[in-house]
Amino acid sequence: MISGVLKANELSEVGALIKSENARLMIERDVYWPKWDSPWWYILLLEETGRLAEVPVDVFKELLTCADRQYLKVFPVREEDVEGPVNGYTEVMCFCFLGSLMKLASKLDFDIFAHVPWAKTWLTRYQLPDGGYNCDESAYKNNGKSSLVSTTVMLEGMTEYSRYTKDTESFAVNMQKAVSYLIKHQVFLSTAGKEIPNTEWDKIIFPRFYEYDFSRGLEAIFDFLLLTGKKVRGAAVEQALAMLRKKTDSGLAHSEKQWLSNEKTVSYYIEKPMVFQDMANLPLLLKKLNSNVANEFVPAMLARISRKHEEIKSRVLIV
Question: Which residues pair with 133 in a beta bridge?
Answer without folding.
Answer: 147
